[in-house]
Known about the structure:
Blueprint: H1 3-23, H2 32-72, H3 75-107, H4 129-134, H5 141-147, H6 150-167, H7 172-193, H8 196-209, H9 213-218, H10 220-232, H11 236-243, H12 248-254, H13 256-265, H14 268-282, H15 287-300, H16 303-320, H17 325-342, H18 349-361, H19 366-372, H20 375-400, H21 406-410, H22 419-435
Helix pairs in contact: 1-8, 1-13, 2-6, 2-7, 2-8, 2-14, 2-15, 3-10, 3-15, 3-16, 3-17, 3-20, 10-16, 10-20, 11-20, 13-14, 13-20, 14-15, 14-20, 15-20, 16-17, 16-18, 16-20, 17-18
Bound molecules: aspartic acid.
Aspartic acid binds next to α18 and α20.
Amino acid sequence: MGLTAKVLWAMILGILLGAVINLSGLNVQGSRIDTYVIEGLFDIVGKMFIAALKMLVVPLVFFSLVSEVIGIGDVGKLGKVGVRSLGLYLLTTALAVASAIGVAMVFAPDANMGMIAKSAFSPSHAPSLAEVLIHIIPDNIIQAFASGNMLQIIFFSILLGISLLMVGRKAIPIAEGIKVLNEAMMQMVGMIMRVAPFAVFALLAKAVSQLGFDLLANLAGYVAVLVLALHLFGTLMLVLKCFAKLSPKIFLKKIRDVQLFAFSTSSSNATIPVTLQTVTKHMGADNSVASFTIPFGATINMDGTAIMQGVATVFIANVYGVELGISGYLTVIVMSVLASIGTAGVPGVGLVMLSMVFVQVGLPLEGIGLILGVDRLLDMLRTVVNVTGDAVVTCLVARTEGVLNEQVFVDSQAGLDNQMLIQTCAQKELSEAITHTKESPTCE
Ligand code: ASP
């Protein structure tokens, strides 16, 4: 069984077990199942896996971006990729939120406020656009790496790549070293992926066993419209078909791994290693584009989050009987796009940024408390759309730059061929070279 199938089965089994625990009432806080299984075993396995993915993100982005900047050797080309991907990310996010508002207005979800269990919501500080811009430049690079601040890491990596280019020949050993470290990081991604099915099982069993099914029923209108809006954004596939001339069918098949990881972790950032590997090894997008567009997209491109914000705004406006009007909706679009730039790709942050939208259009912030209870599930779904958007734009930019290998894209086995064999040979070669037992490599 391939990895995707294993992860898919783990996901289904996890959801089933979670539902059984939930519906049979075994999830009561303080019970044995809750203490030892849900908050014990499942929690430990899930958190260890997410920590392992997050451990890879910073070095992976750093090494792959620096080595690609050196590889491209042309700062102008990098600028073109940057401007193009930024434009596409902003455009797709604006389209996402506009279409979500449209869907929500047609189906006008409403709810009886008395029926919804209100949860206390204390809005945390959402950064302003000025803050976002200023913070692109790290004042302390160690801090940027330690906190995993993606925009700052991207900024520093590009600058370091350019500086190494300017140093010239003397920088060759460092450049080679960074390239090798980048390859090593990719191997590490492969290693961690092997335990993914167990982790996905634990993550989903825990999430579903703690889900408030009764709350879900009371908010059925909101949940249904949001799920519909998220699905309709599959129209993004049209962009792929019309502008990149790539088959959505193949794309959807190859993006499945990435979507499963995004669903299980609810984090675009934690999914970066998988997204990067999929778009380069399985879809044929060159690393010179992907090493920049994937971490950049995971940070600033949040199509699913923007859709949630559009639907949530219409829903809360309906519940409180507030008339937003055209200017109100336009404000929602602009604010959601800005909010998505400032949203880090971590769980639950979209809801925090929603407060920024609500403040601008004058909706009560307590409204966010109404949808808080179902956000865990919806976060999983919107993260799937977020990472899909990143991969679509990456393929599109790679295609327009002429660095998408179509043969790899259409090959269903691409990136999977003889992976184990190649690895064993590589290991043998290295240990032979180090112990000097053989002069020349034995594995061609
Ligand atoms: N969890 C989302 C992501 O990582 C962000 C959010 O909408 O909360 O992409």
